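Curious: explain these tokens?
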Amino acid sequence: MYHETILIIEDDVQISSFIRYALELEGFKAEEAPDAETAMKKILSDQIDLLLLDLGLPDMDGMELLKEVRKWSEMPIIIVSARDQDQEKVNALDAGADDYLTKPFSAAELLARIRVAVRHSNKMNREPAPVFLENKDLKMDLEKHLVYKKGEELHVTRKEYDLLLLFMENLGKVLTYGFILKKLYGKNYGSDTQALRALMAGLRRKIEDNPAKPEYFLTEIGIGYRMLEK
């Protein structure tokens, strides 16, 4: 049984009702808002733990609402939108969205994305700064700056370590090329992804048993990368 309350910000009544039914069947609490004004009132007055945000709202573009909420809240925000252009997804993720789901979608996929976001949020809220990070057969020792797979130390470069740490801190989330480049090389680096692609290829060779059938790193074509959770 989940205790989180999810706010569905969606002006299409049928879609909103479908999502609410799926959430409540899973055990979540759900509230609905047909526009940005109603959504903001609920966010400020109610105990909301996660937003499902449509971008095509009648009174405000959903991107503006996303940016406004991100000024003061780190609550998980998942975009649920008919806009399927890569640049739209990149813009939303770079603006602070935790995930982006394109309509039409299945209830199973929506719930899976929500569970990832809830687990990550709960972990960040309740745990002190970790000494180790683990995912599947990987383990990172944050004090010694070491990486292990199946108990064996992996020899990674400093940049490979920094890249892996970024993924381990954001399990299940799509990280855009721009976000990764800014974190690894600084905000003035630019948008050339050649160095990142080479770095990613090297990390994959060391971590994936078979890079052609990845178990850890998924490429979101035209957007970035996602590290899969166990």
